[in-house]
Design brief:
mainly alpha, 3-stranded antiparallel β-sheet
């Protein structure tokens, strides 16, 4: 409103383009962790850099189908993309060369560093004594920012990433999210309950 008022009252001021407000929940690209790993492994085989159109051609894919995977890799800090070229970052190289357990840890670190929705999910689950929350809670939060269809897609993507990165678990029967506990953590918690 202040900007519009300024334009009306000071016509000599050159209008500047309005910046889109930054969303609190930027849209997660719909890409599975396995697809991200596959792209990074392909880049590793090609010395870390390749033209996006060449990758799409070699994989017999449309570039539009490859873009969400590239965007997800970029969001997580595993790759950078500029002018049709995709380049692996040192973090992406580390991820591509790692075994599965290390990949999960690297994915967890990257997801929690760059994905606000996963940060929020983890914090909410940690805040609850039983470390569980109905998925509907997060659907309601996302509902303020996305269409109904996109709410489900965003939640599915976040859950896939959270499960892969050992951040959370999802029980489809109860429609509840649970904080991920390793076997060692579960054993320690059980021992503490028995002692206390």
């Amino acid at each position: 409103m202040d900007y519009i008022y300024k334009l009306i009252t000071q016509p000599e001021v050159e209008p500047a383009p309005l910046a889109a407000p930054k969303s609190r929940y930027p849209m997660l690209p719909h890409a599975r962790p396995g697809s991200i790993a596959g792209l990074l492994e392909l880049l590793l085989d090609r010395d870390g850099t390749e033209d996006l159109y060449r990758i799409a051609d070699d994989l017999r894919m449309e570039v539009d189908d490859l873009l969400p995977i590239v965007e997800a890799s970029t969001l997580l800090g595993f790759a950078v993309s500029d002018k049709g070229e995709v380049q692996m970052t040192p973090q992406g190289k580390d991820f591509a060369e790692a075994d599965i357990s290390r990949r999960k840890r690297l994915f967890q670190d990257a997801a929690l560093a760059h994905v606000g929705l996963l940060q929020q999910m983890k914090s909410a689950l940690e805040a609850k004594k039983d470390h569980t929350m109905p998925a509907e809670f997060f659907r309601d939060v996302l509902d303020e920012h996305f269409s109904d269809t996109e709410v489900d897609r965003q939640l599915d993507t976040a859950v896939n990433w959270g499960r892969y990165g050992d951040i959370l678990r999802f029980d489809s029967e109860s429609d509840k999210l649970m904080l991920y506990e390793s076997a060692e953590d579960a054993d320690a918690a059980s021992t503490m309950r028995q002692l206390g």
